Amino acid sequence: MDIQVEKQTLGSCCVLREAKAEQPVDCDITLPDYCGDVKSILNCSIEPYLTSGGASGSRISAQGNAVVRLVYVGENDNVVCFEQTVPLSKSVEMSGLPQDAACRISAKTDYVNCRAVNPRRVDVHGCVTVWFTVFSKEKTEVLTDSPTDGLFLKRDGFQTYDFTGCSFKLFEMSEPITVPSNQPAVRGVIHAQAVPSVKDTKAVNGKVLLRGDVRVTIGYCGEDGTIATMNHVLPLNQIAEVEGVSDKSLCDVRLSVTSIDAPFKADANGELRQAELALTLRADVFAYDPLSVNAATDAYSVSESLEISRTRAKALALCEKLDEAFAVSCSLDFSDAPAAELLDVWCDGVTSLFDEAGPAFAVCGTLSLCVLYRDGEGKPQLAHRGCDYRFQKELTAKNGCFVFDPWLCVNGCDLSVSGSGVQGRVQVNLVGVLFEKTEHDVIGELRADEAHPIAAKAALTVYYGSGGEEIWEIAKRYHTSCEAVKQRNRLSGERIESDGILIIPRN
């Protein structure tokens, strides 16, 4: 028998390949004349900034800079800053990628070591790792129907969000900024951070429109020796292309800053108050479309045995699109070097862990905080402290487990000296789309089993049924139709109501 079938393709997002490339960062910093001698080093950081990247043939490359930022104690116990830029360029070979593959490129610093060779020279050694992650659409074909006579299908209907595709786009933003007149002019930048926020998204005809803003914070050493902070907000209005996306699509959008540069220049009075703020942002967009599926879970034929190949179909049910702000209470121990005056606090990293096997929804991790302060002797110090957090919500998976990729950013720190430590709160924002995942055992392939023909059937068969037994299983066992069993025995439901004798007719 030639069996004809109809199928439906389901898509899910999968990580196809991952690769990394390490680049040593070695530089010899010789301080210019306008920087004082080094008395002690407070902090030395390497900040990798990616400004471009993409695939060309089988090669995926990334370009940018590694900014080496030195913060040290100079003359009169003032905090002094100096930075130097090192080119960053890495690539990996990935052959045989599908056409719909999309690559996300990111970079992180592995380690930094530095030492002052003399009061005017500092040696820096570190390493940056560039990560290349390739995403693709994993396709699963499920059997949904068959026009073949004498073939019966049992179906399971469910709703899911089908993965449409993803896009990772780098785009640049720039805007002139000026230090407010009531703040000191800039002598050196201690840290520069930007927090992008998407306020509105709209998907239409293969494009996702993104609207929001980017809040920039720059901590710097002032010309008068004080530590100051300036803030600036840039409007955000960008477009990301995602093939197949439409106004019905659900879009999971995350924005991250891959580079930030604010080279200050002298104004008419010779003070460093003006800069052309330049940002490179990456938009990660994952798109899903609602889909109704009526997949076959079982099948039999009245005339032939069947070979059935089963598969596991993944289904995603939307739980919630999260955009949650929460506060993390921090109590940092400074008993080894008590803080007398807090100069600046910023967050230079967030880790996150989501346990999808847990019965309730919770995200936990650690905030990495940098605390610049003066000790009891009035000397500047810089300390790195970790602050653990846990965010949970009253959500419980009903039939499956949660699927969630958390995206967190720190909106601000409100800390102050308290006794021998530093206490306060850190404002954090959590975004992402939360799904509940279930798996369905369905039929992927179906064919006639010619090696095992069905034995000749009697015109009528007497069967002793048990209450609650499914009529489908009885009909399948005797290769007849459910309707024939129901009509012959005057049954209306899908199961036998009580124990008794059934007459099984030949179809």
Give the quaternary arrangement of the chains. Answer: single chain
Give the termini distance in whole angstroms. Answer: 17 Å
- The total domain count is 2
Mean pLDDT: 92
Discrete helix count: 2
User: How do the SSEs run, as a string of H and E?
Assistant: EEEEEEEEEEEEEEEEEEEEEEHHE
Report the uncertain regions. none
* Shape by Cα distribution: elongated
Name the beta content range. over 45%
State the secondary-structure class.
mainly beta
Largest sheet: 4 strands, antiparallel
Provide an overview of this structure.
The longest helix is centred in the C-terminal third of the chain and has 8 residues. α1 packs across α2. The chain has 507 residues and is mostly beta strands. The protein contains two helices and 23 strands. It is elongated. The protein folds into two domains: 378 residues, no CATH class; 51 residues, LysM domain (Membrane-bound Lytic Murein Transglycosylase D, Chain A), CATH 3.10.350.
Defining traits:
507 residues; mainly beta; Membrane-bound Lytic Murein Transglycosylase D, Chain A; four-stranded antiparallel sheet; 2 helices; 72% strand
Topology:
Elements: E1 6-30, E2 40-56, E3 59-73, E4 79-93, E5 102-118, E6 121-145, E7 151-178, E8 186-204, E9 207-222, E10 227-241, E11 250-261, E12 264-266, E13 272-301, E14 306-333, E15 339-350, E16 353-354, E17 360-375, E18 380-396, E19 401-403, E20 407-418, E21 421-448, E22 460-465, H1 471-477, H2 482-489, E23 500-505
Helix pairs in contact: 1-2
